[in-house]
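Batch manifest, entry 17 of 40.
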Amino acid sequence: HYCASGPLMLQQILYVGLGGFIGSALRFLLGGLAQRLAPMGGFPVGTLAVNVLGCLAIGLLGGLADQRQALDAGQRLFLMVGVLGGFTTFSSFALETLGLVQDGAILKAALNCLLQMALGLSAAVLGYTAARLI
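Output type: structure tokens
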């Protein structure tokens, strides 16, 4: 429901592309910082932190957009599709989990899956609920 045609489509692509650039840069910076601050013996803490923070942010923004009509279509594209799409790292999560399995660290792989899902979904619910209160 986002795509249009012609000049409007180009504008939408620019919103998403610029947001994606910002989100990817933030992922690189914050994921690396989290990994350095909380090294856990090869456990991908940086990716977990970025995914949980991204889920919290998308829950909050989605809640604000739904409850308060706080974002127009361009802002939603920029923030939710662009910034948060570039920021969250599900593909990194998948590859890191596969690496843990291939290394025989099945418990770490299972823990990573459990934490990514439980904390990510909880953060999205928390963000969405917080949007109702602010």
